[in-house]
Fold this sequence. Notes:
38% strand, single chain, Phage protein
Amino acid sequence: MSRKTISRPTVTPFVVAYGDEQGGPEVDLTIQFTPEPRLAYRIPQAGDRDRGGVLWARVERASRTGKPIYGQMNADRQRDCMYDLLCQVCAEPASRTGDGWLFLDWVMPQDPPTWPEGSLTNMPPLCVECARVAVEQCPHSGRFVPLRVKLPRLWGVSGVAYQWTDDGWRSDDTIPWIKYGDDRLHCVLASQLIRELRKVTVVGLP
Protein backbone atom coordinates (compact mmCIF):
# COMPACT_ATOMS: atom_id res chain seq x y z
CA MET A 1 0.00 0.00 0.00
CA SER A 2 1.45 3.38 -0.95
CA ARG A 3 1.83 6.12 1.64
CA LYS A 4 0.70 9.71 1.33
CA THR A 5 3.04 12.48 2.40
CA ILE A 6 1.31 14.83 4.84
CA SER A 7 2.62 17.72 6.90
CA ARG A 8 0.59 16.88 10.02
CA PRO A 9 -2.01 14.28 11.07
CA THR A 10 -5.64 15.05 10.32
CA VAL A 11 -6.92 12.45 12.82
CA THR A 12 -6.08 12.34 16.52
CA PRO A 13 -6.31 8.78 17.89
CA PHE A 14 -8.62 8.23 20.85
CA VAL A 15 -5.75 6.95 23.03
CA VAL A 16 -3.51 9.99 22.53
CA ALA A 17 -2.82 12.15 25.60
CA TYR A 18 -3.57 15.88 25.68
CA GLY A 19 -1.56 18.63 27.31
CA ASP A 20 -4.37 19.63 29.68
CA GLU A 21 -4.87 16.10 31.07
CA GLN A 22 -3.12 16.25 34.41
CA GLY A 23 -1.99 13.28 36.46
CA GLY A 24 -2.56 12.97 40.18
CA PRO A 25 0.09 14.26 42.63
CA GLU A 26 2.29 11.88 44.64
CA VAL A 27 0.83 13.25 47.89
CA ASP A 28 -2.38 11.37 47.01
CA LEU A 29 -0.51 8.07 47.51
CA THR A 30 -0.25 6.16 50.76
CA ILE A 31 0.48 2.67 52.07
CA GLN A 32 -2.25 0.08 52.61
CA PHE A 33 -1.96 -3.22 54.49
CA THR A 34 -4.05 -6.04 52.99
CA PRO A 35 -2.27 -7.70 54.94
CA GLU A 36 0.90 -7.07 52.90
CA PRO A 37 1.82 -3.40 52.30
CA ARG A 38 0.89 -2.05 48.90
CA LEU A 39 0.63 1.26 47.08
CA ALA A 40 -2.81 2.89 47.43
CA TYR A 41 -4.63 6.20 47.20
CA ARG A 42 -5.48 8.07 50.40
CA ILE A 43 -9.06 8.39 49.18
CA PRO A 44 -9.95 5.27 47.16
CA GLN A 45 -12.22 5.49 44.13
CA ALA A 46 -13.98 2.88 42.04
CA GLY A 47 -11.77 1.76 39.19
CA ASP A 48 -8.47 2.58 40.90
CA ARG A 49 -7.40 -1.07 40.56
CA ASP A 50 -7.80 -3.55 37.73
CA ARG A 51 -8.91 -7.16 38.16
CA GLY A 52 -5.32 -8.13 38.94
CA GLY A 53 -5.30 -5.75 41.90
CA VAL A 54 -2.84 -3.33 40.26
CA LEU A 55 -3.19 0.35 41.10
CA TRP A 56 -3.64 2.65 38.08
CA ALA A 57 -2.62 6.25 37.58
CA ARG A 58 -5.46 8.74 37.79
CA VAL A 59 -5.49 10.96 34.73
CA GLU A 60 -7.85 13.72 33.68
CA ARG A 61 -9.76 12.46 30.67
CA ALA A 62 -12.86 14.58 30.19
CA SER A 63 -11.92 17.44 27.87
CA ARG A 64 -9.66 16.21 25.04
CA THR A 65 -9.52 19.88 24.02
CA GLY A 66 -5.86 20.68 24.72
CA LYS A 67 -2.91 20.11 22.46
CA PRO A 68 -2.49 16.42 21.56
CA ILE A 69 0.81 14.80 22.54
CA TYR A 70 1.15 12.17 19.83
CA GLY A 71 4.04 10.38 21.53
CA GLN A 72 2.03 9.66 24.69
CA MET A 73 -1.16 7.77 25.53
CA ASN A 74 -3.78 8.63 28.13
CA ALA A 75 -3.63 5.84 30.73
CA ASP A 76 -7.42 5.45 31.06
CA ARG A 77 -8.12 5.44 27.34
CA GLN A 78 -5.23 3.08 26.54
CA ARG A 79 -6.45 0.72 29.26
CA ASP A 80 -10.05 0.81 27.98
CA CYS A 81 -9.05 0.09 24.38
CA MET A 82 -6.55 -2.62 25.24
CA TYR A 83 -8.82 -4.36 27.75
CA ASP A 84 -11.95 -4.31 25.57
CA LEU A 85 -10.03 -4.72 22.28
CA LEU A 86 -11.33 -1.44 20.89
CA CYS A 87 -9.73 0.49 18.04
CA GLN A 88 -7.08 2.84 19.40
CA VAL A 89 -8.11 5.53 16.91
CA CYS A 90 -11.92 5.61 16.94
CA ALA A 91 -12.69 3.53 20.09
CA GLU A 92 -15.12 1.30 18.18
CA PRO A 93 -14.65 -2.51 18.25
CA ALA A 94 -11.40 -3.48 16.53
CA SER A 95 -11.45 -5.56 13.37
CA ARG A 96 -11.72 -9.30 13.96
CA THR A 97 -11.79 -12.07 11.40
CA GLY A 98 -11.22 -15.81 11.54
CA ASP A 99 -7.50 -15.05 11.75
CA GLY A 100 -7.93 -12.83 14.80
CA TRP A 101 -7.83 -9.16 15.79
CA LEU A 102 -5.98 -6.59 13.72
CA PHE A 103 -2.83 -5.05 15.23
CA LEU A 104 -0.10 -2.86 13.76
CA ASP A 105 3.20 -3.73 15.39
CA TRP A 106 6.95 -3.60 14.75
CA VAL A 107 10.07 -5.33 16.03
CA MET A 108 11.45 -3.94 19.31
CA PRO A 109 14.81 -4.72 20.98
CA GLN A 110 13.13 -6.69 23.77
CA ASP A 111 11.11 -8.88 21.39
CA PRO A 112 11.79 -12.63 21.23
CA PRO A 113 13.46 -14.19 18.15
CA THR A 114 10.05 -15.70 17.33
CA TRP A 115 8.60 -12.21 16.63
CA PRO A 116 5.77 -11.52 16.07
CA GLU A 117 4.77 -14.73 17.85
CA GLY A 118 5.03 -14.23 21.60
CA SER A 119 5.80 -10.50 21.42
CA LEU A 120 4.43 -7.96 23.88
CA THR A 121 2.63 -4.77 22.85
CA ASN A 122 1.17 -1.70 24.52
CA MET A 123 -0.55 -0.63 21.28
CA PRO A 124 -4.27 -1.47 21.18
CA PRO A 125 -5.75 -3.04 18.04
CA LEU A 126 -7.46 -1.16 15.21
CA CYS A 127 -10.37 -1.33 12.82
CA VAL A 128 -9.43 -1.65 9.15
CA GLU A 129 -10.33 1.93 8.19
CA CYS A 130 -8.31 3.44 11.04
CA ALA A 131 -5.37 1.13 10.32
CA ARG A 132 -5.26 2.57 6.81
CA VAL A 133 -5.30 6.10 8.26
CA ALA A 134 -2.47 5.19 10.64
CA VAL A 135 -0.34 3.83 7.79
CA GLU A 136 -0.94 7.02 5.80
CA GLN A 137 -0.41 9.54 8.58
CA CYS A 138 1.89 8.19 11.32
CA PRO A 139 5.53 9.25 10.81
CA HIS A 140 6.65 5.84 12.11
CA SER A 141 4.42 3.83 9.80
CA GLY A 142 7.36 2.60 7.75
CA ARG A 143 8.00 0.13 10.56
CA PHE A 144 4.38 -1.07 10.84
CA VAL A 145 3.56 -4.70 10.13
CA PRO A 146 -0.15 -5.63 9.98
CA LEU A 147 -0.90 -8.67 12.14
CA ARG A 148 -3.90 -10.84 12.83
CA VAL A 149 -3.81 -12.21 16.37
CA LYS A 150 -6.09 -15.01 17.49
CA LEU A 151 -4.95 -14.94 21.09
CA PRO A 152 -3.94 -11.49 22.40
CA ARG A 153 -3.48 -12.44 26.05
CA LEU A 154 -3.63 -9.95 28.89
CA TRP A 155 -0.03 -10.12 30.11
CA GLY A 156 0.75 -7.27 32.50
CA VAL A 157 1.34 -3.55 32.78
CA SER A 158 3.95 -0.84 32.48
CA GLY A 159 4.21 2.12 34.80
CA VAL A 160 6.24 3.72 37.57
CA ALA A 161 7.67 1.78 40.51
CA TYR A 162 7.54 3.31 43.99
CA GLN A 163 9.40 2.60 47.20
CA TRP A 164 8.37 3.34 50.76
CA THR A 165 10.48 5.94 52.59
CA ASP A 166 10.22 7.77 55.92
CA ASP A 167 8.34 10.49 54.04
CA GLY A 168 5.95 8.11 52.25
CA TRP A 169 5.95 6.62 48.77
CA ARG A 170 8.43 8.09 46.30
CA SER A 171 8.90 7.21 42.63
CA ASP A 172 11.83 4.87 42.03
CA ASP A 173 12.01 3.99 38.35
CA THR A 174 9.94 3.34 35.25
CA ILE A 175 9.11 -0.33 34.67
CA PRO A 176 8.40 -0.86 30.97
CA TRP A 177 6.96 -4.39 31.26
CA ILE A 178 5.89 -6.28 34.38
CA LYS A 179 3.84 -9.45 34.31
CA TYR A 180 0.68 -10.12 36.31
CA GLY A 181 1.61 -12.20 39.32
CA ASP A 182 4.98 -10.49 39.83
CA ASP A 183 5.58 -9.60 43.48
CA ARG A 184 6.72 -6.09 42.48
CA LEU A 185 3.23 -5.12 41.32
CA HIS A 186 2.31 -4.06 44.87
CA CYS A 187 4.46 -0.94 44.44
CA VAL A 188 3.68 -0.10 40.80
CA LEU A 189 1.43 2.69 39.56
CA ALA A 190 0.33 1.38 36.17
CA SER A 191 -0.14 3.56 33.10
CA GLN A 192 -0.40 1.05 30.23
CA LEU A 193 -1.93 -2.38 29.78
CA ILE A 194 0.20 -4.95 27.95
CA ARG A 195 -0.95 -7.88 25.84
CA GLU A 196 1.06 -10.86 24.63
CA LEU A 197 0.45 -11.76 20.99
CA ARG A 198 -0.12 -15.47 20.37
CA LYS A 199 -1.27 -17.36 17.27
CA VAL A 200 -0.13 -14.51 15.02
CA THR A 201 -0.33 -14.22 11.22
CA VAL A 202 1.41 -11.49 9.24
CA VAL A 203 -1.12 -10.06 6.78
CA GLY A 204 -1.65 -7.17 4.40
CA LEU A 205 -4.20 -4.40 4.89
CA PRO A 206 -7.33 -5.06 2.79
